[in-house]
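Predict structure. Chain length: 488.
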Amino acid sequence: MLFLAKSLIKHRNYDFSIKFKSLIGTFLLYGSPVKVLFIGHETEINDPIKKLMAAKFPKVRMIEVKEIESLMDLMTNDGPYSFVVMAIDNKNIAVSEVYESISDTLGVRPFVFIGHPSSVKAQITNEMMRLSETNFLIKTPIAPDEFKKAVNSSIEWVKKEEFEESILEFTKDDLHKMRMRNFYLFEQMPYDVYLELTSTKYAKVITKNKPYSHQIIQNYSRKNIKYLYIKKDEHLKFFDVSIKNLLKIYEAKLYDRKKIILLHLKTLFFIHQFIKILSVSDDIVKLTNFFIDSVHDVVIGQESLIDLINNITESNNMTFAEHSLATAYVCESITYNMGWNADMSRDKLMLASILQDIGLSNDEMIKIRSLNDPNFKMLSDEDQIEFKNHPLKAAYLSTFFSGFSDVDFILSEQHEHPTGDGFPKGLNSSGLTTISCIFILANNFVSRLGHASGKRAAYKEIIGSMKRIYYTGNFKDPLKALEKVCKK
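Prediction complete.
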């Protein structure tokens, strides 16, 4: 899709409005309801227009001018308006004067004129109808197909204009990229968000502080677009402010219990991003402790681990936040069912869950469990090095968390294997402590879920295949506990 956009930009004679512009326009249009200025007449005229618009275009919100004297106030205080629908049978208004007043105030906007043939003859000038790209005429009685065609044309014009106005130029150093799927965590953003068209041209696709539709994110994902961008200086402000807001939510217990998983995912997303960009701060350590206590409460209060994990993501392509949260829930479930009640052990496993992927740049690597994995062999040389080194990088970062100890060895051993075929040290089951075995099991279990196509049946199959490998040494008791919680 991006290749298509780049090709079209190079060839300026090509109509750039086709597929790519339509995709962007859809985002711009349906991120929030479309406002249409409606200048009506009497009830018997207005009602059919309103009903037809609601039936054919449910995203359109018609703002009716009750008194023509209030038109200027509506235009200046209640916009912006995408286009105008005008019932022209009202003999108390001069349509041409109203048309000029609106055009002078709002600029060029599509107009859909609706009226009796006699009103058309009396009220519509030749000058209005010369603008055939933006002005449309529908005679009464209204033919639904004609109405639909006129409104569709108006919408397409607006999409095209908004798209072209949204194209800006940046260098790569001006922007920070964010994985597309992370935008499912939010309903709106405090800053403008951009989509890459070329190495220097970007389209604004999310306007700051305006709600956007998750359906649009899904549409982009289907086009294999993986990243959106925000300005770097705004990016840092975004994370700093968000972390402080999360601390307030946890401290005051302002969260909705029904939305606790979303809160956990947001918490992990911001912890990961802040550490990758800056480092471990006192606020990050404090937020981590709040998160750990909250995970404990949620897991203990929930009978089914499967229900918890299934509510984290509906996709098999887990993000880093989703992988960390699922691992944390599994670790907490295992330790609780093993009778491990010490906060210290729980805290170590929770921090390990948070940091396990901190050294990875691509969340596709979550599914890779060993250096013998075919997916590992398909990585570039640079990515292979990154994957080999990420356990030790996570281990190093864990030492910056005050109040936690010995998490580094758990993280450095996260990809070890009971047969000694793991990395980086090649330890076998006799050389691994029980707490490391718990984390390895949880990590491996969640990673396998990344490949699973089913839900509940997949858990049974995964446990069955893991028993053939991990039913040995210090892995035995954690595996029994995991099997027990998955059966509930």
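Summary: The beta strands are 34-39, 60-64, 83-87, 111-115, 135-139, 167-169, 175-179, 193-196, 201-206, 227-231.
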